[in-house]
């Protein structure tokens, strides 16, 4: 077939391809192109890009304390405002994965074995993006959203986890809204895709995704006192949690 004739048929061909397959969510940990171990986090300066070239990055000595809260000093990467991290595999010996001090972009970043959290967002406003990549074995959250503004997660894979993303339920500066946008995410053997605080106006919009038990949102009443937040419901409510094309066949 002449290449121009093929191009003319391409839209019709693509229309028959399932969206997840078209987007190409990778569901296995990529092979490492080498290994790097450091005794302190690697900082990516504001506006800069760090390409890990698919190497495995980990902390030595080990700082993971499982679900004990640690902090930024025990992260593998610290991203300043506007920084981008790409093509990285993060090993199991770090504790806090990636900390974003402002808005950040993660592209094809993988977490071999999540310790406390994989990604912590601390932006005061704006939009952070997590594109591609994935995380395995997160006892609790993969993404901890402590700041404000929006996080967009697309083409991401999660396996054996608590929540894919949680809007902080009891941070001391709670009171503003956080917005979560999830598109073309595949999540298996875990809990909900997002947890939000409706009393602060948080929202979660899920589209074209798969969670093998159909678990979409948990809704909470958040606080700023440090107390455990109260769960008030699960699933879409048409206002704070909206869901379009969520499958159980992952």
Automatic annotation (TrEMBL):
Source domain of life: Eukaryota
Cofactor(s) it depends on: Ca(2+)
Catalyses which reaction(s): Eliminative cleavage of (1->4)-alpha-D-galacturonan to give oligosaccharides with 4-deoxy-alpha-D-galact-4-enuronosyl groups at their non-reducing ends
UniProt cross-references to InterPro entries, sorted A to Z: Pectate_lyase_PlyH/PlyE-like, Pectin_lyas_fold, Pectin_lyase_fold/virulence
Subcellular location: Secreted
GO annotation, cellular component aspect: extracellular region
Recorded family membership: Belongs to the polysaccharide lyase 3 family.
Purpose of the protein: Pectinolytic enzyme consist of four classes of enzymes: pectin lyase, polygalacturonase, pectin methylesterase and rhamnogalacturonase. Among pectinolytic enzymes, pectin lyase is the most important in depolymerization of pectin, since it cleaves internal glycosidic bonds of highly methylated pectins. Favors pectate, the anion, over pectin, the methyl ester.
Pfam families the record matches: Pectate_lyase
Example GO molecular function: pectate lyase activity
Protein name: Pectate lyase
Biological-process GO terms, alphabetical: pectin catabolic process
Keyword terms of this UniProt record: Calcium, Lyase, Secreted, Signal
Species of the source: Thermothelomyces thermophilus (strain ATCC 42464 / BCRC 31852 / DSM 1799)
Enzyme Commission identifier(s): 4.2.2.2
Extent of the signal sequence: 1-15
């Amino acid at each position: 077939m002449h290449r121009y004739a093929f191009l003319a048929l391409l839209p019709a061909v693509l229309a028959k391809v399932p969206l997840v397959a078209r987007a190409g969510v990778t569901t296995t940990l990529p092979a490492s192109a080498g290994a790097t171990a450091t005794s302190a986090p690697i900082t990516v300066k504001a506006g800069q890009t760090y390409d890990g070239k698919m190497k495995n990055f980990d902390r030595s000595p080990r700082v993971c304390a499982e679900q004990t809260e640690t902090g930024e000093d025990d992260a593998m990467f610290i991203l300043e405002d506007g920084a981008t991290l790409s093509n990285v595999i993060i090993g199991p010996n770090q504790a806090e994965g990636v900390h974003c001090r402002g808005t950040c972009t993660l592209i094809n970043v993988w977490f071999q074995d999540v310790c406390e959290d994989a990604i912590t967002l601390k932006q005061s406003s704006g939009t952070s993006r997590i594109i591609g990549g994935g995380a395995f074995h997160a006892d609790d959250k993969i993404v901890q959203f402590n700041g404000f503004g929006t996080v967009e997660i697309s083409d991401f894979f999660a396996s054996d986890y608590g929540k894919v993303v949680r809007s902080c339920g009891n941070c001391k500066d709670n009171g503003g809204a956080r917005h979560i946008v999830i598109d073309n995410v595949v999540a298996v053997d875990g809990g909900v895709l997002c947890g939000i605080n409706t009393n602060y106006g948080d929202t979660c919009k899920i589209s074209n995704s798969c969670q093998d038990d159909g678990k979409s949102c948990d809704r909470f009443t958040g606080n700023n006192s440090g107390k455990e937040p109260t769960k008030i419901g699960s699933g879409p409510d048409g206002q704070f949690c909206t869901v379009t094309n969520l499958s159980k066949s992952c």
